[in-house]
Amino acid sequence: MLKYISNKGGGKPVNFETAILNGFASDGGLYVPEKLPKISKNELKKWKGLGFKDLCFEIVSLFIDREIISSDELKIIIDKSYDAFEVENAVTLYKLKSREQTYIMELFHGPTLSFKDIGQSFLVNLLDFLLKRKKESLSIIVATTGDTGPAAANYIAGKSSLDAWILYPKGLITEEQERQMTTLHNNNIHPVGVYNCPEGGDDLDTVISKLYSNKKFKKKVKLSSINSINWGRIIAQMTHYFYGYLKVADYIGEDINISVPSGGFGNLCAGGFARKMGLPIKNFIIANNKNESLNRIFRNGVISKDKIHETISSAIDIITPYNFWRYLYFCNGQNSKNIKIWSNEFETKGEFHFDDKTFKSYRDGFLSFSVSDKSTIGTIKSIYENENYLLDPHGSVAISALNSMDEKLSHNKTICLATAHPAKFPKVILKSLNKTKLPEAGKHKSIEGAKKKCQKGYHCDYSNLEKSLLNAIETNWERSKKIIVK
Ligand SMILES: *Cc1c(COP(=O)(O)O)cnc(C)c1O
Predict the structure, then answer these.
(1) What's the whole-model pTM score?
(2) Cβ(332)–Cβ(249) under 8 Å?
(3) Domains of the chain, CATH where assigned
(4) pLDDT tens digits, one per residue of 138-188
(5) Does the C-beta of 267 come closer than 6 Å to ligand 1?
(6) Contact criterion met (CB below 8 Å) for 289 and 445
């Protein structure tokens, strides 16, 4: 039986089901499998022709015991997760004409138009399956820098096993993203726009941690989280790395680079694990914007907090890359004691320097760069002018980072991840193209539709958030229980 443990070493090992339902481990650490499975070149060869859903089935099966979810049940969960995508294989590849050996992998064809749909759809359908079987329900609380929230709201809407509180920093996400959450009118969706977050979306995670450590409250309303700390999202997100590699590589073993616009290291953590499991990716390019926590970790060996900068690639305005600790666990000989000491030191002092050996081991195969808004805009403009292809600001960060380091990458193929649809960021697109009207490629019918709908949600000042949430969640929980009892 495959067990999951905390990367900080506390608590007892648990099975897959408990790891998914709990979100965080009992000591506040992140769940990791006791060991990572290995995939041979022969297996990769066999997987080469598979569609996205079949590939996802093969990959997530490596992490789930069949006694917990049978293969038929898992297939149904995966179908439910990806059938609503606009394209048959969930993601698509586009080969650039104006840049050699460069592919864009579009991860934004799910219902809410960002890569968060890939992990969140799977996690929510998985949770719903596990909860219905236990005849239980959960309150979910989730913070967003703009894309996790819409994805969570979309999949949770109407599911009787789940009730979702979705916190977003008011004014720091686009109106289009906000409307994706506030125009769903289901009773189990509660968007909360929060004013005056001094550190942007990261502040909301702090409040969530506080609610989590309130044991009585947590138990009463059955609180859990589907932030990127949930292991279910990571395993689903491994799929696009395998899929992209197998599509682009001429033979198994070809060196291919992947450039990833990054904030919390959730997407990259999945990629890093995919490589450790045997996927022959040469370099990952960590593309940060001005919020460059990851760039500091990978260039200087220091994890540290800076103040938040507002940028035009707002979904990656993140200063605490939680999932880095999860990746690190598999680079330091699975030494949970050190993870605990180091992360505690970081939390109390706001900074931690890794020793040389650790630095070398986690840095292997990663390059990083911090991209300015100016280059993000310049890249959107030049790719549009050169080949009539419209990038969103995050895809543009991935390509801009690649532009800054060409010599280092010799002449291998590179896949750049485009993590959002440009229609979510119309102001940035207009500014970049220096136009007053959006081109067709910058529009999407679901975004247009949401413009006309009535909005629903809470608004709250950050200073009062914890108290207000305690009240609102509790009141709602009691009311919904009464309805069920009747
Ligand atoms: C969340 C998000 C990212 C960053 O993903 P992490 O897992 O936090 O690194 C990048 N681009 C977009 C559009 C996102 O929504």
Answers:
(1) 0.96
(2) no
(3) 92-113+231-444 (3.40.50.1100)
(4) 999 999 999 999 999 999 999 999 999 999 999 999 999 999 999 998 999
(5) yes
(6) no
Helix or strand or coil: residue 342?
A: helix
Ligand 1 close to Cβ of residue 150 (< 6 A): no
How far is Cα 183 from Cα 124, in angstroms, rounded to an integer?
Answer: 20
Sign of the alpha-carbon dihedral angle for 372, 378, 384, 386: negative
Spatial separation of the C-alpha atoms in residues 156 and 147, rounded to whole Å? 14
Instruction: Kindly name the residue from 8, 53, 116, 413 that is annotated as catalytic.
Output: 116
CA–centroid distance, 394 to ligand 1, in Å, is 8
Beta-carbon contacts of residue 301 (< 8 Å; ≥ 6 apart): 353, 354, 356, 358, 359, 363
**Amino acid identity for residue 200 in this structure:** G
d(CA 398, CA 171): 24
- Ligand 1, atom 11, residue with closest C-alpha: 419
Rounded Cα gap, residues 304 and 395, in angstroms: 25
DSSP classification of residue 4: E
420 alpha carbon – ligand 1 mean position (Å): 9
228 Cβ below 6 A of ligand 1 = yes
CA dist., res. 313 & res. 289, Å (int): 7
Q: Is 3 tagged catalytic?
A: no
Which DSSP symbol is given to 413? E
